[in-house]
Amino acid sequence: MKYLDEFGNPELAHKLVDEIHAATTRPWAMMEVCGGQTHSIIRHGIDQLLPDGVEMIHGPGCPVCVTPLEIIDKALAIAAQPGVIFCSFGDMLRVPGSSQDLFAVKSAGADVRVVYSPLDALTIARDNPSRPVVFFGIGFETTAPANAMTVYQARRLGVPNFSLLVSHVLVPPAVAAIMESPRCRVQAFLAAGHVCSVMGTGEYPPLAAKYRVPIVVTGFEPLDILEGIRQTIVQLEAGEHEVRNAYPRAVRAEGNPAAMAMLDDVFEVTDRTWRGIGMIPRSGWRLAAKYREFDAEERFDVAGVRAAESPLCRSGEVLQGLLKPHQCEAFGKQCTPRSPLGATMVSSEGACAAYYAYRRLELVQL
Amino acid sequence: MTAGLDFENWTCPVPLRDTPTVVMGHGGGGAMSAELVEHLFLPAYGPAVQGDSAVVPVGAERIAFSTDSYVVKPMFFPGGSIGDLAVNGTVNDLAMSGATPLYLSVAFILQEGTPLAEIGRIAAAVGAAARAAGVRVVTGDTKVVDNGSGDGVYLNTAGVGLVAAGVDIGAHRAAAGDAVLISGDIGVHGVAVMSVREGLEFDTTVVSDSAPLHGLVAAMLGTGADIHTLRDPTRGGVAASLNEIARAGAVGVELAEPALPIPAAVADACSLLGLDPLQVANEGKLLAFVPSAEADTVLAAMRAHPHGAGARQIGTCVAEHPGMVVARTALGGTRVVNMPIGEQLPRIC
C-alpha cells in the first residue's frame, strides 16, 4: 500500500500538472471512461488543477449506473421469493427499481446479503443446499472473470442451487456508440485501466483509427490520471490519434489470457440495454448455452417483468458526457443520494454522486 | 449502430421516496437516523435537547443524562466486546458534556438459546469496564425473547454524571476561529469489527480503540481552556460528527486532509472495501472545538494523557459555508465531506 501511496505524491502530481499546462495551447474535451476514474478525479480535485478549457467529460463506466432497470426489477422479484438467498455487491442495494430497492425488499423480510466476491455466494450456496442462492452478476469486463469463475466452479462442483442473474456490459461498443452520437463532443478517451488489464488493448486501435481519437489506457491514482491526461493532451496537440498505455504496471497489451479464456468459455456476446442510454448492439455478455442452467432468469419466472422509466432524470445525458451532473434541474433538489432519481446518484462511482459528495461547495456558491 | 438509440429522450426511474418501513440505514448514524429523530421522535416528545447527552438541572446541580443501545455483531472483536462498548459508550456520551460520569444502568435483552457462558463473559466485561472507568452499575434489567426474535445479546445502558459549575460544552458553542482537534487515530474500531464480521473476514493488526474518555476530558478542562464543543465520533464516524456540529453551530468546518491521522492499516482496509475512513466508527476518540489561541495548551494536556497521546489539530472552524464540512486535499483541491446517508455500502470494484 505504501507503493500505492506514492501514486498520490503531491510534489510529483504538481510536476505533471505543470507539464500539462505547458503542453496545452487550446481547449480540449476528453472522456474518462470509468466511474472509478471519475470518483478519483473529483475526490482529489484533479479537474480543478487542469488548464482552463481542458474539460473532463464523465463517461458511462459505472457498472451500477448502467445496469438496466428491468434487470433490477427482476432482481427485486427474485430476492422477494420465499427461501431465496440473494447475494449482491453492496452498491446495488440502494439502486432504485421501478418502485423499490433491495434495501426495501430486505426490510420486508427477504434474505439479501452483501458479499465481496461471487465466490462467497457460491460458498453460501454450498452451506445452504436446500435454498436457492442467486448472485447479482453485473459490471464491466473487470468483474466478469470472477463471475465466470463462479459459474464454472458451480458446474464443476455440482452446486445446483446456485444461479447468476447476469447483466454484464462491455466498454469498446460503448466507446463506439458515444462517438456515433450526433451531439458527441469527446475528442479523446482515457480508457479504463482495469478493463484493459483483463482484456488487453487490442480492441482499441480500430476505434482510435475510425474515430480519429487518441485513447490512453489510464489508472486510478492521482498520478496515473494526470499522466493519462498528459499523454492525451500531447497527442491532441500533435494531431495524433494513437492507443497508448499509461498504466503499464497493470496492463499488458495481450491482457490476461487465463481470464479471457474463462470469459470465452462461460459467456457469449449479446445485445444489451444500458440504463439511461438505450440498447447498444453486442455490448454485453450473457451465459453461454452450456451454462444456461445457472441463469437465474431461466430458473425463476421473471420473463414477464417489464419496466418503464420516468422522464424526470437525465442520467443518460450525464452518462454520455452531454450534461454535467449539476446542470440537471433535479440535481440536489428532487435527486440526492438519500432519494436518488437515477443510478448515477446512487453508486459511489456515479458521476452525480461524486458531484453531490464532493462538489456541493462550489455549486452552492454559484 | 446507433440507429436504435434515443439520444434526446433519456428516461430514468420514478423517484424512491421515504420507505414506509424501517431499513438498516435508519440505524446508521447518518442522515436517515437524523431524519427519523427529527420527523418522527421529536414531534412526539416535544422539545428535547439533542447531543450525545442531555444536561438538565436537578435541584442546585446540573446532571448529564444519556442512554445508548448496543447491537454490535459479532459480540466479541479484536480489542473488546459488546460489554465494554456498552459501558464506555455511555460514559463517553456523558463526558462529551463535560460531566463526571457516576452511575450506570445495564439492561440485557437475551435470545433464548444463547449460551450462559457467553452472557457471563459479557457481564464480566461490563463489570471490568465500569471499574476501570470509575463508575458504578447501580440498576439493571433482563429480558428474554424467543429464539429467532433477537440476535444473541442486545445491551442498553443509561448513565448520569455531574456537570461542574461553569462548564458549558455543546455544538451550539462551536465558533469561527476554533481549532478542530482529534484525540488520536481515526477509523480503528470500525475496521476492527469489520475484520471479524461474517462474510467479510480479513487479517488486520487493528484492534478496537474502545476506551472511557472522561479522564481525558477532565485533563482538558483542567487547563482552564474554554472548550466549546466535544463529540465522540462513533457511528457515522468523524464525517457525521463534524456535519452535526457544523449544522447545530451554523458554522463551517475546513479539514486539512493530509493532517488526518489515519493509520495505514485502516487506510488499506478502507481502500480495499471501498469505504471512507472519515465515515468509519470510533469508540475511544473525541473531537474538540477550542479557541485557536488555546489549542496548543489543550493539545499538550491531551498528549500527556494515555487516551490522547496521538492528539492533533485536523482543521479549523470557519464562518464560510455554514453547515458544511470541506476538506482540502493533498493535491490542493477541495471536496465536501458529506453526512453519511445510511449504512456504508461497499463498492463493487
UniProtKB/TrEMBL annotation, chain A:
<comment type="similarity">
    <text>Belongs to the HypD family.</text>
</comment>
<dbReference type="InterPro" id="IPR042243">
    <property type="entry name" value="HypD_1"/>
</dbReference>
<dbReference type="GO" id="GO:0051539">
    <property type="term" value="F:4 iron, 4 sulfur cluster binding"/>
</dbReference>
<dbReference type="GO" id="GO:0070025">
    <property type="term" value="F:carbon monoxide binding"/>
</dbReference>
<keyword id="KW-0479">Metal-binding</keyword>
<dbReference type="GO" id="GO:0005506">
    <property type="term" value="F:iron ion binding"/>
</dbReference>
<dbReference type="InterPro" id="IPR042244">
    <property type="entry name" value="HypD_2_sf"/>
</dbReference>
<keyword id="KW-0408">Iron</keyword>
<dbReference type="InterPro" id="IPR002780">
    <property type="entry name" value="Hyd_form_HypD"/>
</dbReference>
<protein>
    <submittedName>
        <fullName>Hydrogenase formation protein HypD</fullName>
    </submittedName>
</protein>
<dbReference type="GO" id="GO:0051604">
    <property type="term" value="P:protein maturation"/>
</dbReference>
<dbReference type="Pfam" id="PF01924">
    <property type="entry name" value="HypD"/>
</dbReference>
Automatic annotation (TrEMBL), chain B:
<dbReference type="InterPro" id="IPR011854">
    <property type="entry name" value="HypE"/>
</dbReference>
<dbReference type="Pfam" id="PF02769">
    <property type="entry name" value="AIRS_C"/>
</dbReference>
<dbReference type="InterPro" id="IPR036921">
    <property type="entry name" value="PurM-like_N_sf"/>
</dbReference>
<feature type="domain" description="PurM-like N-terminal">
    <location>
        <begin position="51"/>
        <end position="163"/>
    </location>
</feature>
<comment type="similarity">
    <text>Belongs to the HypE family.</text>
</comment>
<dbReference type="Pfam" id="PF00586">
    <property type="entry name" value="AIRS"/>
</dbReference>
<protein>
    <submittedName>
        <fullName>Hydrogenase expression/formation protein HypE</fullName>
    </submittedName>
</protein>
<dbReference type="InterPro" id="IPR036676">
    <property type="entry name" value="PurM-like_C_sf"/>
</dbReference>
<dbReference type="InterPro" id="IPR016188">
    <property type="entry name" value="PurM-like_N"/>
</dbReference>
<feature type="domain" description="PurM-like C-terminal">
    <location>
        <begin position="176"/>
        <end position="321"/>
    </location>
</feature>
<dbReference type="InterPro" id="IPR010918">
    <property type="entry name" value="PurM-like_C_dom"/>
</dbReference>
<dbReference type="GO" id="GO:0051604">
    <property type="term" value="P:protein maturation"/>
</dbReference>
